[in-house]
Amino acid sequence: xxxxxxxxxxxxxxxxGYDRDRDEVIKELLEAGADIECRxxxxxxxxxxxxxxxxxxxxxxxxxxxxxxLLVHV
Length: 74
Known about the structure:
The chain is 62% helix and 0% strand. By secondary structure, the protein is mostly helical. It has one domain (5-72): Serine Threonine Protein Phosphatase 5, Tetratricopeptide repeat, CATH 1.25.40.20.
């Protein structure tokens, strides 16, 4: 899977945000190749940020993205 640093920064911002449409934005960023394993300046991944916010919807989207990433690299 092609990964984009620019999309990855946007992914972290979307997970940190509170916009109503961020579910779709996050899905689109993952489809566009955002690096789901990238970290913010505090060392948090998108999954870690979603877990800290107890955001089940976003966490599920991100975990599905991780599963797809793992299946592609098997």
